[in-house]
Specification:
By secondary structure, the chain is of the alpha/beta class. It has two domains: 2-220, Rossmann fold (3-Layer(aba) Sandwich), CATH 3.40.50.300; 223-281, Alpha-Beta Plaits (2-Layer Sandwich). Helices cover 36% and strands 29% of the residues. The strands form three sheets. Strands 7-8-9-4-10-11 form a six-stranded mixed sheet, with helices on both faces. Strands 1, 2, 3, 5 and 6 form a five-stranded antiparallel sheet that branches. Strand 8 (154-158), helix 6 and strand 9 form a beta-alpha-beta unit. The structure holds adenosine-5'-triphosphate (ATP).
Length: 299
């Protein structure tokens, strides 16, 4: 759905984006993670043809960008930082302006599309208010509604939950996951690791302009080969597991064992009470920090 090779953008001596090779597949919820200033917005702008790359190539929906923008852009929904709305118009009127710019727009189906988009983002009750009276979160939702108008196969969203309260974040997450389940590929940028962890299937991590990691979330969070056991009977457990224990903190023991079921059975057999037991997994936070450190060492 999106593929870049060697994508680079320099602003004078600032390397905003350096040699980035994105691969977003059909059906992904792709999380583009990076700290403030790491180059996410610049990358998203290049994908949409709003900023020209210094070098490198971009393909969106199988067509080269920015050259095929007139063909590609009507087929995707996009929201980039600070959606530009007319402050004196209502949300509905703003969406009508957006929608009118598309080809073949007949009035009845346009009204239906706008209603659907407003309802999807939870703005159907407030659409008569002028946009200047909107909170940041409401503007963010309206931006998302504009991206949904064309019922696109691909959504490209720069920090879509910025400015939303926890309830709003949860609603947008639910909405994006529902759209994805119905076949929409979602590419979203965020500086929030937990957000990416909660909703994405694939992750790309940008660190000071460079893509330091790109993989399926499931693979990044693979088991470490250790099993974590919580038990009030630590002494008995330690005696049984002697030679396999890597660490103990209070009632928690980390054991070198990749078969949690067998481990549980052997503990229970000797009367050790088990509160919790399961395979330990790598956390996204650890993997991201390791990748950033390794990349920093190479520079
Ligand atoms: P944020 O989360 O804060 O939006 P970001 O990851 O989106 O950050 P970018 O906005 O892409 O990062 O910025 C990456 C780098 O490029 C920063 O050092 C920024 O100052 C620089 N930069 C971005 N746009 C321009 C520009 N038009 N002119 C000069 N430098 C720029």
């Amino acid at each position: 759905m999106i593929r870049t090779e060697g994508l680079t953008k320099h602003y004078g001596r600032i390397a905003a984006v350096e040699d980035v090779g994105l691969e977003v597949r059909d059906g992904d919820v792709y999380g583009f993670l990076g700290a403030n200033g790491s180059g996410k917005t610049t990358t998203v702008r290049m994908l949409l043809g709003l900023v020209l790359p210094t070098s490198g190539s971009i393909e969106v929906l199988g067509r080269s960008m920015p050259g095929s923008g007139r063909e590609v852009l009507p087929r995707i929904g996009a929201m980039v930082e600070g959606p530009g709305f007319y402050p004196q118009l209502s949300g509905r009127a703003n969406l009508a302006v957006f929608d009118a710019s598309g080809p073949g727009r007949d009035r009845p189906s346009r009204a239906g599309r706008i209603d659907d988009a407003l309802a999807q983002v939870g703005l159907d009750g407030v659409d008569r208010r002028p946009v200047r009276a909107y909170s940041l979160g409401m503007r963010q939702r309206l931006g998302l509604a504009a991206a949904l108008l064309r019922r696109p196969r691909l959504l490209v969203l720069d920090e879509p939950t910025n400015g939303l309260d926890p309830q709003g974040i949860r609603e947008i997450r639910r909405l994006l996951l529902d759209l994805n389940a119905a076949g929409t590929t979602v590419f979203l940028s965020s500086h929030l690791l937990t957000e990416i962890e909660q909703m994405c299937t694939r992750v790309g991590v940008l660190d000071r302009g460079r893509l330091v990691l790109q993989d399926q979330l499931e693979h990044l969070q693979r088991p470490t080969g250790r099993t974590v056991v919580r038990t009030p009977d630590t002494d008995a457990a330690l005696a049984l597991l002697d030679g396999h224990v890597e660490r103990q903190e209070g009632d928690t023991i980390w054991v070198r064992a990749d078969d949690p079921l067998a481990l549980n059975a052997s503990l229970v057999r000797v009367g050790v009470r088990v509160l919790e037991l399961g395979p330990e997994r790598h956390t996204l936070e650890d993997v991201v920090l390791q990748a950033a450190t390794a990349s920093g060492d190479r520079r």
